[in-house]
C-alpha cells in the first residue's frame, strides 16, 4: 500500500478533524472559527455549473483518428496529410432534449462531437447521428428547442408543442422520420453512425475548394431499441449508453467507426437539385459516393467525468487550415452560438481547461479573465504588434478569397427552386431505404407519439402533420392516418404541392 497522505484544506493546511465541527461544549452551538466547515459547505454549494441547454446528458472518451487513404488532393489539412497518420481525439456523445439526469434511451437525435488535437490547432466536428436536422435556419433554433423541453405551465414534455412546431415547419419532416424510425432509439453510442451533418469545405494546397460532408460508419453495426425496449430500459438503467461505453472501453473492446467523406465540386453545387448547404437535405451517395478516409477508435476512458466530459467544449467555429465553412445557415449560426454558450457555462478561459486545451503552441495576446490558470503569458508583451517578441501572423495560412456566386445570392430567395421541397427526400427515405419492419415500427412510433397531442388545436395539428406525411408518400400518409384512427379521405391533401404557403 502506498504511503498515507495527509488530509488538508483546499489551501493545503493539514488538519485532523473532518467529521465533527468545533463546538462550544460537546452539544454545541458551533463555533464560527471552524472555517473548514464553511469551506466544505460553500464548495459543495458551488459544485454545479450551468447545464448545457441542449445536449445536457452525455458521455465521452479519448481515442485516435488514423488515416487509411490519401485525400490530400482535396485538403491540405495536416490531420489528413499522410496514410498512417494518427491524431488524438476526444469525443462526446449525448442526447439532445433531456436534462443532465434524463434517460439515455429517450427518442432523440444523438450528439456526435469530436475534437481532433491537430498540430494546426483543435478541429471540432460537432455533428449528430443523423445527416440532417429539423430546421435549416438558426433563427428557429431557440423556438424549436423550447418545443422539445418542458411546457411552461405543466412543466411536462408536450407532444402538442412538438407536433405543433413540426407541422408548422415542414422542413422538419425528413429528420422527424429519422427520429421516429428505430434509429431514434439507438441501443448504445457504439452502435450508431455519426455525421458532420453540415456541408463544410476542403481547401487543397493549390487553394482549390471542394464542398465536403463527413460520415462515420459504425464498425459495431447498427443496433437499435424498439420503442418498447427503449421505454423499458429507461426504468431499468437510465444510464445504459454511458455504462455501455465505459464498460466496453475498460474491457479493451474499443469502438471504431470508418470515416468517409462525400465530395461535391463547386461546379456541381451550382446545378445540384437542392441547396447543397441545406441541413435538411442529404447528398445522394449514388451521385456523391463515399470516399474512405480513415478509422476513428475510442480507447481511453476519461479519468474524471466532470473534469473531462462535463467541461469539454466543442465549437463548429474551430476548423483548421485546409478545412473551412460553407454558407450552410445553421453552421453559420452555430459558429457564433457554441463559443458563446461555453463562455457562459465555463467562462472566458474555457479553452484553458485541459480537455479543451490545444496540446501544441498557443501564442496570442488574450489575457486575464476568470479562472486564468496557465500563467497568463507570463511577462511577455500583451499587445500586438510589439517590438519585443517574435510572434508573427504567418502568411502561409492565408486563405483564398471566397467567391460569392450568383447562386449564393439566390439563396436569399426563400422560394427559389430547390429551397422548399420538403417532401422528395422523406419520400425516397420511406420508399427506398426503410425495410418492411422499419416502416411498421416508424408508423407505430409516430402513432404513439402523436397520441399525446391534446387541447383545442388537436385536430388542426394532426391534420396539418398528416398532410406532410401524405405529401412525402401517399402510402405513408395512409398508414399513419389508419394507425391514429383518422379517416383517410378526410386526411388526404386535396392538392399535392411543395409550396409552403398552402400548408
Ligand atoms: P443510398 O441507398 O445510397 O443510401 C441510403 C443511406 O441510408 C445509407 O447511408 C444507409 O446507411 C442509410 N440507411 C439505411 N437504413 C436506414 C435507416 N433505417 N435510417 C436511416 N438511414 C438508413 O441512398 P441515397 O444516398 O440516395 O439516400 C437516399 C435516402 O437515404 C435519403 O433521402 C435519406 O433520407 C437517406 N439517407 C441518406 C444519407 C446520405 O448521406 N446520402 C445518409 C443516411 C440516410 P447504412 O445502411 O450504413 O445505415
Would you mind describing this structure in some detail?
This protein is α+β, with helices and mostly antiparallel strands and 503 residues long. It folds into three domains: 7-18 and 31-48, no CATH class; 58-147 and 183-356, Catalase core domain (Catalase HpII,  Chain A, domain 1, Beta Barrel), CATH 2.40.180.10; 424-491, no CATH class. The protein is built from 15 helices and ten strands. Strands 1, 2, 3, 4, 5, 6, 7, 8, 9 and 10 form a ten-stranded antiparallel β-sheet that branches. The model is unreliable at 496-503 (pLDDT under 50). It binds NADPH dihydro-nicotinamide-adenine-dinucleotide phosphate.
Question: Layout of helices and strands, plus pairs?
Answer:
Blueprint: H1 35-45, E1 58-67, E2 86-95, E3 110-118, E4 121-128, H2 141-148, H3 159-168, H4 173-180, E5 194-195, E6 200-203, E7 209-218, H5 227-236, H6 240-250, E8 256-265, H7 266-271, E9 291-301, H8 305-310, E10 323-324, H9 329-346, H10 406-410, H11 424-433, H12 436-450, H13 458-472, H14 474-483, H15 488-491
Antiparallel strand pairs: 1-2, 1-9, 2-3, 3-4, 5-7, 6-7, 6-10, 7-8, 8-9
Helix pairs in contact: 2-3, 3-13, 4-11, 12-14, 13-14
The structure holds NADPH dihydro-nicotinamide-adenine-dinucleotide phosphate.
